[in-house]
Write a structure and sequence with these properties.
This protein is mainly alpha-helical and 512 residues long. It is 76% helix and 0% strand.
Length: 512
Amino acid sequence: MAPTTEDVKLAPEEGEKKIEDVGEKREGSDSELEANAIDFDGPEARRILSKVDYRLVPVLALLYLVAFIDRSNIGNARVAGLTTDLNMKGLQYNTAVTLFFVPYTLLEVPSNIVLKLMRPSHWIAILMFSWGLVMTLMSLTSSYGGLLAGRFFLGVTESGFFPAATFLLTLWYRRYEVQRRMAVFYVAASLSGAFSGLLAFAIQKLDGRSGLEGWQWIFLIEGLVPIALALIIWKVLPDSPETASFLTQTERDFLVRRLAEETGSGHGRVTNQDKMGKKFVIAGISDWKVWAAVVVFWGNTVGVYGFTATVPTVISQLGYSAANAQLLTIPIYVFASIMTIIFAWWSDHIQTRSPFIVAGFVIAACGFIAQLAIPHPKYPGLTYGFLFPVAGGLYCPFIILVSWIGNSLAPSSKRAVGMALLISVGNMGGIMGSNIYLDREKPKYRTGFGVSLGMCCGAIVMTFVLRWAYARENRKREALFAEHGEGEIRARYSDQEMLELGDKSPFFKYTL
């Protein structure tokens, strides 16, 4: 049929659109070709990763520093007179510390599901503003009941940050790159103990100003910081390689490609672009290896949360003033930070996880044994000295475990749920840790040190169980690959089915 007049008029516009489409396609193809030409381990790759490092890791580290200070500053507030002013007795302080973990543990998995459904930067900004507001309002507390309410809602609002931040890092780095970045991020938790002590030492000097006690000033000032950060973080924090405005299209394509090919075996692909669905939620919750890792996690949280909330009191009971006790916590956490960084870089360098987890808990166990053996407070210097291996040994295996489980879960929706489950149930150890350092046992804390020692031993045993399970699965897949070959295995699945298999794919190799 001959073209009508109307068809002829439309033809030039259609022709222009086709040319534009072809141009866009060619541009996209050019960027993909350029991305494919970049060596994964070459200088150009390192330059691109450096851009990501400077934009992402310091921001997350700062946010976690603020978060950990806000959740643990109750220990500093206690030394500054919180329990005296609120007429707290017996186990009431332990109850206040514990209450934080109830909503904190219950809401982490739902939070990461929300994270996958919206932009991470926006969700994290909402969380930060919320917990900052709660912390600020806690400065107005005038009763024990008010303190309990504040701790509960602090747990609600902080619950999503750590699983969101650790999951976000796995969207940017390969399995033997993510841990050293995660360590820099997590070391903020170790340094928070030092900063919290230093800040508390300075803030206490405001005691009596404007009718507020020293502990009220601690809550007020340390609550306003996350509120201020929340107002800018939604714009600064990048969401994913696919949408990063600070990268060129070629750089974005390169990051997406190198992550897609990171299965550990050199074959197959994985994806971070899967949509959250019921089957991935079930897969993340039902993986028994995540639950086994929870036991290892408890080895950390039981000791860390009890230790963090109690160490200023332990030191003060050795004969030091309250102000000096705050300052003397600083070297302990600096030492823990250094150990965390060393272990993380070493573990990434030799591409293994489990031996470093075991080593950390062995060091912590030695510290706990020493604390139980030393006749407190007869040797204050010796007691103080053995707080260093306790902190260092507890902090350094934690991020290795989180990285290990993050390395072992795919696709990203299952990883989001599995990592959140690990962190949420694992943080229930904080409930135990908050109640085993009994006020009537100070400064010996035999129950606290003894239970923490037992949990370290349990974590060591379960680490060996996990390593055995992952190694056995790797051997099965290697045997399957040797028997049938890549082509025959690929023929059994479509590309989409293979991506959705994630860590169950025959091409996926677990980290040991």
